[in-house]
Amino acid sequence: MVELTINNLKKSVPEGTTILEAARSLGIHIPTLCHLDLHDIKMVNQVGTCRVCMVEVEGRRNLLPSCSTTVAPGMVIHTNTNRAIRARRTIVELLLSNHPSDCLICERNQNCELQSLAAELGIREIRYQGPRLRAEKDTSSYSIVRNAEKCVLCRRCETMCNEVQTVGVYSALHRGFDTVIGTAFDKPMLDTACTFCGQCVSVCPTAALTETNDSAKVWEAISDPNKLVIAQTAPAVRVALGEAFGLPVGTRITGKMVAALRRMGFDKVMDTDFAADLTIMEEASELIHRIQHNGRLPILTSCCPAWVKFIEHQFPSLLDIPSTCKSPHEMFGAIAKTYLAEKLGVDPEKIVVVSIMPCLAKKFEAKREELSGKEVGTNVDYVISTRELARMIREAGINFTYLPDEDFDDMMGESTGASVIFGTTGGVIEAAIRTAAAWLDKDNPSPQIDFKSLRGIEGIREAEVEIAGMKLSIAIAHGLGNARKLLTEIRDGKAQYHAIEIMACPSGCVGGGGQPYHGNNIEVLKKRAGALYAEDESKPLRRSHENPQIHKLYEEFLGEPYGDLAHELLHTHYHERDIL
Amino acid sequence: MSSMTSQVRIALRNCGVIDPENIKDYIATDGYDALAKALFTMTPDEVVETVKKSGLRGRGGAGFPTGVKWETARRSESDIKYVLCNADEGDPGAFMDRSVLEGDPHCVLEAMAICGYAIGANQGVIYVRAEYPLAVKRLQIAIEQASELGLLGDNILGSGFSFNLKLYFGAGAFVCGEETSLMNSVQGGRGEPRLKPPFPAVKGLWDKPTNINNVETYANVAQIIRRGWEWFRQFGTEKSPGTKVFALAGKVNNVGLVEVPMGTPLRTIVEDIGGGIRNNKKFKAAQTGGPSGGCIPAEHLDTPIEYESLIGLGSMMGSGGMIVLDEDDCMVGISKFYLTFTAEESCGKCTPCRIGNMRLLEILDRITEGNGEEKDLDVLENLGNTIKDTALCGLGQSSPNPIISTLRYFRKEYEEHIFNKRCPAGSCSKLIGYKILPEKCTGCTVCARNCPVSCISGERKQVHVIDQERCTKCGVCFSKCPFKAIIRG
After folding, report:
1. What is the DSSP letter of B91?
2. In the CATH scheme, what architecture does the domain B244-326 have?
């Protein structure tokens, strides 16, 4: 333990503690900007670049950054002296002098860490004036917009992309005042190995990294009387959207979300969860098929488009492992523009499918050429993130918290508990195992539903599940850095599993790049996941194959799971991509 | 020659004396004697102790005691340790290290091997500027020759100690002369400083304990080991023993490298060694420490040069640049020159250095263009001090020094620029103008014929006139007029 004094308060803290942590343990607040410690997902940005958290330490010539200075015995620290406060103010004024002053029309207005910091420090004038850095926006990708002019060079995106996700898209380019965060050879984002997981956006303190805004196109479609616009909502949206309207973290607002979408003017409000059940039918069939026919194992879940792009770039030799199943919202689109169109008697050309997703990679996925069927054109027309939906609800003047609960529309609105947990790490594989267990263990009158050994927050988890005397070895990874470890072991033949679930975002879709900002608090993600499991338990049906609408779909249209029509509509293929 | 009498050559002792491409020349001047002495008659602790007692301090600028660095690296436990040589000399006008590398490369190799033995490292890296092709070539030859003779490589002189050396070329970023940026660069990363602590001696290159010194520091080591620390301490002062090499430049009569004992008064360097100011102009200031240093005015000419005294004057030793300024040099312009350099060479990692230096530079630009405002002086001072107080590495922490030291000694000059829109040194082109005095002009046409933009008109034997709109203020007319009929102001 190390004894120290902060603002005349004595404290004893463990060795290796930073001044910032020690101060917080005493209830002393030190403003920060670049610092970010999401310990549970190993996202620790301790680069000390912004110089906002400077404090005075007796006996030291210069001010020290509290976020990255570890305590020493007998240290006497002052966090709020005139010298420290003036320095902090100067630093923030410098940042503001190089920042567009368009807060009123900025994507991050009222939700920006720089703006909050300026407010907290009571900055009323910027004493330093001069030209700002000018840079072109990168709008090349379908998912992420980069605006270097709003970048404060906190380097969080770099840490997230390079160290946590191990994708390595970002690096600082140029020198001095011209320094920007950019891609290798300044390539447009679309031409990089970016997976569009959007985790960089999740941790960006300003609007330097934002999602592509597709809401205008959606409004356009809704207002077109010749279009039948169908909304489908991913599981993770319903446990996070409420946060945008001031509801407690982890509140389930499924019914209000449906009501809001209807009031926005969507013709049909349906559920991606339905398609998640469909995915399980196909994926569990594929798993059993591979096991029974000595096929390639392990099978890897393919619901996460960021992860799929990751394996295409980084592990092209393993492209025969992922399940060929399209992701649920793509399956939804394929069925909506065939089966549903026929049932409703609507020309598929007139159907517009809008996916509401916690994810930014789904925006890119929707543009993949191989996901367009011959008959149906594009499966999904537009993808909007949870954040975009929240903005649209506000824009439409809908008082979200006062909305009644409403149900999804028929036919593609019913779902089981299994599909709900798709939104969290371990959920997809648990859903698949629930169905596989029921199918393989036909004599068992009450096959297992909850596989709690598959749940948790650890980055890589392994579990063995016994079904009908067969031991299935399962691995789960969330976060692409963890995925890389797992895939490297598989490639090198060091690990043997039957099935693996991978989600690109830490904690899975609840922590997706399109979700409301978690405010640098990982507890938020845990509560969202908890809400999904609660929703699962509240459902009368908890196994995908029990979904009556799914039964009907196979009976009336698809035929057999993993059959010919299913292959054509619900499965896809992968291709190698360059790493640079 | 009076310019030689005050000099003592330790670091430069062989430069210009031996053939740097022939190891036998070096050996003939007792080269590699110190390495053999260390390997066969001293324990590593004794080597560290000798360097410590010698009081040798880092010649790269900060003046940290070399022996303490070595001791920390020796005590850090690790399977692998490194010895690094910082040969990324980057101060404008400085060429001390280049001269050592080109003139006596073996003295650096020998010192690095001694250091390796002392701290327990078997691998050394010299980070040298790629813009020093001759230094690179001579280092390569030296490493080759030393390896052939068993003075580098495995089992040196049969002692059981092995030491291998590699060169790594810097690509010209000034910040890579900062030790942690240098290590990032060697590792293939962007040249950006790391947070300290941990210091390199604990966690350096590839996160292994690393001793890093600059060329001139190493150039002293072999002599200290061979002749003993007491010998070394006879030169210099109590706190700054030994000698220091300066690259003397500017308005003195004799320019070039000089090596003087620490404690030598500035006046000796300027007046005796430098031979005084050219053209009988008045000495104005000596700029030391390069972009991180400051300007020392005439009233402090008798200050003995050592680390602490220079810092006390608001300047610093730096790596040894020394530029002598005379009455024609504008101190605001000098600040601007250095700040332009640091602003461009900032790595951009931390806010104060990245944005703060640019804002300072913009203010200096305004002042030298006649657009300065009263509040600018306060802003320069406050912002400059905050940058010093908050920047991440030595580059940023010292970048405002040229401004702060000139504000301290030459504030009036800034005020003249701001309030009277005048450059007293007549150097800021936007603030000066040339006028022909009609009563003195004889119409000789010399000015008109020499004006490079032909903006002077007038008939022969008639009074000439300068077109102020087109005048570029180059000053040619002023210096050519045989009748002193043109005034500047």
Report:
1. S
2. Roll (3.10)
Asked if B390 has any chain A CB less than 8 Å from its own CB, the reply is yes
Amino acid at site A24: R
Q: Is A365 a catalytic residue?
A: yes
Domain that holds residue A155: 133-210
CATH code of residue A548: 3.40.50.1780
Q: Provide CB contacts within 8 A for B46, sequence distance 6+.
A: none
**Tens-place pLDDT, residues B452-474:** 999 999 999 999 999 999 999 88
Same domain, A187 and A329: no
- Is A509 designated active site? yes
Does the beta carbon of A48 lie under 8 angstroms from any beta carbon of chain B?
A: yes
CATH number at A74 reads: 3.10.20.740
A203, A339: one domain: no
- Chain-chain contact of A54 with B379 (C-beta, under 8 angstroms): no
pLDDT of residue B1: 46
Told to judge if A34 belongs to the known catalytic residues of this protein, a careful annotator would answer: no
Number of domains forming the structure of chain A: 3
State whether A177 and A254 are in the same domain: no
Query: Within a domain: residue A381?
Result: yes
- The encoded tokens of residue A311 equal 């394996």
Model pLDDT, residue B153: 97
pLDDT per residue over A27-86, tens digit each?
Answer: 999 999 999 998 888 889 999 999 999 999 999 999 999 999 999 999 999 999 999 999
Q: Report the first-to-last Cα separation within chain B, whole angstroms.
A: 41
Disruptive mutation site among B202, B390, B395 for chain A (greatest number of A CBs within 10 Å): B390
What are the beta bridge partners of residue A54? A65
Residue A561 DSSP label: T
User: Which residues are CB-contacts of A515 (< 8 A; sequence separation ≥ 6)?
Assistant: A202, A236, A240, A358, A385, A386, A387, A528
Q: Is B357 on the interface with A (CB under 8 A)?
A: yes
Position B135, amino acid: A
Whether B344 sits inside 8 A of A95 (CB atoms) is no
Determine, for residues B347 and A175 on separate chains, whether the beta-carbon distance falls below 8 Å: yes
CATH architecture of the domain covering B343-419:
Up-down Bundle (1.20)
Asked whether the beta carbons of residue B351 and residue A91 sit closer than 8 angstroms, the reply is yes
Q: Quickly state the pLDDT bin for A444 (edges 50, 70, 90).
A: confident
Any idea which architecture B433-488 has in CATH?
2-Layer Sandwich (3.30)
Question: What is the predicted ipTM?
Answer: 0.94
